[in-house]
Design a protein that fits this description.
With 95 residues, the chain is α+β, with helices and mostly antiparallel strands. It contains two helices and six strands, in the order ββββαββα.
Amino acid sequence: MSGSPIIRVEVARPDLEYIHLWCEATSSGLMWAANGYVGTELAAPDIAYEDFHDFIRHLSKHVGDGATWTDLQQGDQITAWQAMVRLSDNQGVNT
C-alpha cells in the first residue's frame, strides 16, 4: 500500500526509523493509512483503516513521546495534535 504521504513521523528506533501517514478517498468513504520504514525498506506498521479511531489506536503502538512530526506538504514540524487534526479534517486527502 502506498499513497502520497502528508505526514512523516520520525520515531528513531532500531526497528523503525519513520512512518508516512496519509488519507485516501475510497468508494465507501475515507481510509487512513501508514507505512513504516527502516531506511528505504518497508517495516511495520503497514496498515490501512476505514475507522480513524482504530487507525490511531494501532499507530500509537509504534509512536512514542519523543517522535517528531512533519507536515510534508508545508515542510513544517508540527505537534502530534496538529497531525491528528490534519488527518481527521480530511486535509490532503488523496483521491
